[in-house]
Structure formats: structure tokens, C-alpha cells
Design goal:
With 307 residues, the protein is α+β, with helices and mostly antiparallel strands. It has two domains: 149 residues, Beta-lactamase; 132 residues, DD-peptidase/beta-lactamase superfamily (Beta-lactamase). The protein is built from 14 helices and twelve strands. The strands form four sheets. Strands 3-2-11-10-9 form a five-stranded antiparallel beta sheet, sandwiched between helices. The chain is globular. Bound molecules: 6-diazenyl-5-OXO-L-norleucine. The site of 6-diazenyl-5-OXO-L-norleucine has 13 residues, from loops.
């Protein structure tokens, strides 16, 4: 692909979404997220050659929310390897991101690390070796390193708001603790989880952070994780990255992807590009409505679907 043409494509996509009237609904169950205007739209594409192509509000930080589950999974696999899979599954749930129903019949083992229950167990695994403060520090260092950007920060107001309103997450964590699948005190596990969700990143930073998933575990020529592990994380993003909307995302876009209720999506075209889009309005499954549409247009114009 000509570099000129990817710049044209991202500019066109940003322009097309600017005037879209159906923009989805901004998440309001975490109060600071409710204040973000639904007019925002950003896109950043990092190609394999390292070039960065952006349009719209691509430099504006937003709450990455559940996209942090990809980075948390990467850290937990680094800490305990495949032992992680004794405590969390690798199957799509087909249920909402904050659902509790499957835990009752499935012995407190969440279906996958990308639903809330799964990410809470992932945090508990990290706390098997670290204090919450250390785990949060490790996460910050990790995203800053893979993105090559020391300015990435956690939005403490968002973390506090999640703490104040996260009753479902408290229920999930307590329920799993009753099954013996959460070991650390629930408030410490959730404090860690909420701080991960409250990471604030721009599309540019997020797309840069996704390079290790695009390039078989490497970022900037440095090995972050093994190629096999990067491919497996991508497989989970493809099958589970959009909750009960994952099949539709694979059908329409055909790329591994992970969404967050802040309206961001990180998508990976293996060997080709790491892509971040942001539009705060969500579809009923909690995934960015225009973000998905923008990715659909991008793969249509570039042929980047893995299928
Ligand atoms: O725990 C929560 O509900 C939020 N901090 C994260 C949820 C989320 O991003 C779901 N994504 N689409």
C-alpha cells in the first residue's frame, strides 16, 4: 500500500464519521465517562514500517477501559504462563461484559479474560506476586514501554468513580471469591482492576502500544513476548474481544480487536498494522458504534481482514 493512500483513507473515514447522525449511546454508569461528547472521533494506524497515520481526535486521551484487559492478560501470562488457564477459560461467553450468570454453573471460572469476571481473576493472579501499587506500577511501565511514550497516565477520577459505582464488579469478585477463584481481598483486587480500566490513552498511544500484537511479539525491534503468545492473544481478541458482539465483529471486520466502554477499540492486522479508533457512543453490547463502522470501512478499503 502507498503511504499516501493510507493517509487518504484515514482522513476520509474521519470525515465520513464526523457527520454521522446515529452515533450510539455514551456510557453513563461510570459518571466521568458520561461527560464525554459523542461528537469525538479519532483514528490512528501504525504500519509495520513504524509510520503513524492519524485523523480526527487521534491525539486526545480517553479512558481505555476494557482494552486494558489485553495488557493485563499479557502481564499475567508473563507472570504465571499457561497456569493462568486453570482459573479462566478461553471461550466466548455470548453474554454481556458484566454478566454473572455463567459463574454459578461453571464453578466460578470465567469464560475468558476479556469479560469483567475474567479480568478480575487476571488481576488476582497478578496480586499473587505483587502488591496492588506494584501491579499498577507494572501496568503503567508496560504500556509506556510498548507505546514508547512516558506521558501515559491513569485518570484517578475515573478510578475513584468506578470504585464508587462498581457494584456489579463487587458482586462478581465476591462471588468468585466464594468459589475460591479470587484469593486476595476483594477490595484490593478491584482497586487494581479499576486502575487498569482508568488508563487514559490517545488513539496514537494505543495503536503504538498494540505493535507487539501486530509484529509477533516485537515492538520497535525489541521482543516483548514470544510470537506464539502474541498470536494466541490475537486469537482470544478475535473470539472474545467484543463480548456477545464478537461474532459480528469477526464477520464484519475480520481482525482481532478489543473494545472498551470509553468508546475505544484496538484492532490488529497481523504483520500489517496496529489500529486504534475512538468514538464514545456505544452499541447495545457496549462497543463503539462508529468505531466499528470505521474499522469496517478501513478493512473494506485496505483488504486487511485476516480471512
Ligand atoms: O468494569 C467495568 O464495567 C468497566 N471498567 C469496563 C467495562 C468495559 O469497558 C466493557 N467494554 N466494552
Amino acid at each position: 500500500m502507498q503511504l499516501g493512500s493510507i493517509d487518504t483513507i484515514v482522513a476520509e473515514i474521519a470525515e465520513e464519521t464526523r457527520t454521522h447522525t446515529h452515533r450510539g449511546k455514551v456510557a453513563d454508569y461510570i459518571p466521568p465517562l458520561a461527560c464525554v461528547p459523542d461528537s469525538k472521533f479519532g483514528i490512528a494506524v501504525v504500519l509495520h514500517d513504524g509510520s503513524v497515520h492519524t485523523a480526527g481526535d487521534a491525539e486526545e486521551p480517553f479512558s481505555i477501559q476494557s482494552i486494558s484487559k489485553v495488557f493485563a492478560l499479557t502481564l499475567a501470562l508473563g507472570a504465571v504462563g499457561d497456569q493462568l488457564w486453570r482459573r479462566v477459560g478461553r471461550e466466548p461467553s455470548g453474554t454481556a461484559f458484566n454478566s454473572i450468570v455463567q459463574l454459578e454453573t461453571e464453578h466460578g471460572i470465567p469464560r475468558n479474560p476479556f469479560i469483567n469476571a475474567g479480568a478480575i481473576v487476571v488481576c488476582d493472579v497478578l496480586l499473587g506476586r505483587l502488591q496492588p501499587r506494584e501491579a499498577i506500577g507494572q501496568m503503567l511501565r508496560f504500556v509506556r514501554t510498548v507505546a514508547g511514550d512516558e506521558t501515559i497516565a491513569i485518570d484517578e477520577a475515573v478510578a475513584r468513580a468506578e470504585q464508587d459505582t462498581g457494584f456489579r464488579n463487587m458482586a462478581l469478585a465476591n462471588y468468585m471469591r466464594a468459589f475460591g477463584n479470587v484469593h486476595a481481598p476483594v477490595e484490593l483486587v478491584l482497586g487494581t482492576y479499576f486502575h487498569f480500566c482508568a488508563l487514559s490513552m490517545s488513539c496514537r498511544q494505543l495503536a503504538l502500544a498494540g505493535r507487539y500484537l501486530m509484529d509477533d511479539g516485537r515492538a520497535d525491534g525489541h521482543s516483548v513476548i514470544s510470537a506464539r503468545r502474541a498470536r494466541r492473544i490475537n486469537a482470544l481478541m478475535m473470539s472474545c474481544g467484543h463480548y456477545d458482539n464478537s461474532g459480528d465483529f469477526a464477520y464484519r471486520i475480520g481482525l482481532p480487536g478489543k473494545s472498551g466502554v470509553g468508546g475505544g477499540i484496538l484492532a490488529v492486522a497481523p504483520g500489517i498494522a496496529s489500529i486504534a479508533v475512538w468514538s464514545p457512543g456505544l452499541n447495545p453490547s457496549g462497543n463503539s458504534h462508529l468505531g466499528q463502522l470505521a474499522l469496517e470501512r478501513l478493512v473494506h478499503r485496505t483488504g486487511w481482514s485476516v480471512f
